[in-house]
């Protein structure tokens, strides 16, 4: 396929994402699609393979984010198409807004997207995800556990029963806020 045809295929892909047309999306990606989103501790990060991985990624994104995506520039050479764009929206778990600049490096094979490597503004997404981010919650729980140990020692010294100390620790902590 020509470079122009590959760019059009990628444009069609982004149009299908914008309209939420799952059937069109599946028709535009190869059966062995590989979509890589670098990172850790984020629901969308990882390597997603095949139609099943692709659908799972889209469903996870739909459950996690309210977003609009705007591809702004297409740079192509042969079967490679780089797309430079932006997204904005909210992380559903925190209802916090984000603005994200991104680049997709896409390989088109036989008129279908064969691979996508997505580079996103992880800081913007981390800030918007912070309250619901597992690492943040884990740190809060760790801090609360340390506080609990201190309170339990204090409770033992004052004669309070351990469960009363625990209830006081939970009530006084910000772990669930």
Compile the SSE list and pairings.
Layout: H1 3-19, H2 22-28, E1 29-37, E2 46-49, H3 50-64, E3 65-77, E4 80-91, E5 96-109, E6 112-119, H4 122-129, H5 134-158, H6 162-172
Parallel strand pairs: 1-6
Antiparallel strand pairs: 1-2, 3-4, 4-5, 5-6
Helix pairs in contact: 1-2, 5-6
Task: Tell me what the structure shows.
With 177 residues, the protein is α+β, with helices and mostly antiparallel strands. The chain is 47% helix and 34% strand. It is built from six helices and six strands. A six-stranded mixed beta sheet has the order 2-1-6-5-4-3. Helix 1 packs antiparallel against helix 2 (22-28) and helix 5 crosses helix 6.
Report the strand count. 6
Determine the structural class based on helices, strands and strand pairing.
alpha+beta
Order of helices and strands: HHEEHEEEEHHH
**Hey, roughly how much beta strand do the residues contain?**
25-35%
Helix content: 40-55%
Structural shape = globular
Gyration radius, rounded: 22 Å
Chain oligomer state = single chain
Beginning-to-end CA distance, first to last residue:
54 Å
Low-confidence sequence ranges: 132-149, 162-167, 169-177
Order of neighbouring strands in the sheet with most strands: 2-1-6-5-4-3
Number of helices: 6
Biggest sheet, in brief?
6 strands, mixed
Mean pLDDT: 81
């Amino acid at each position: 396929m020509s470079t122009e045809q590959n760019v059009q295929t990628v444009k069609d892909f982004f149009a299908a994402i914008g309209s939420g047309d799952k059937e069109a999306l599946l028709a535009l990606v190869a059966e062995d699609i590989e979509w890589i989103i670098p990172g850790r501790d984020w629901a969308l990060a990882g390597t997603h393979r095949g139609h099943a991985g692709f659908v799972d990624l889209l469903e996870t994104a739909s459950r996690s984010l309210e977003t609009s995506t705007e591809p702004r520039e297409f740079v192509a050479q042969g079967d490679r198409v780089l797309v430079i764009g932006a997204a904005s929206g909210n992380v559903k778990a925190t209802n916090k807004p984000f603005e994200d600049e991104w680049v997709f490096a896409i390989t088109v094979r036989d008129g279908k997207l064969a691979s996508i490597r997505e580079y996103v503004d992880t800081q913007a997404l981390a800030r918007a995800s912070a309250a619901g981010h597992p690492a943040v919650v884990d740190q809060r729980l760790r801090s609360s556990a340390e506080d609990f140990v201190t309170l339990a020692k204090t409770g033992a010294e004052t004669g309070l029963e351990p469960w009363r100390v625990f209830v006081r620790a939970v009530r006084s902590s910000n772990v669930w806020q």
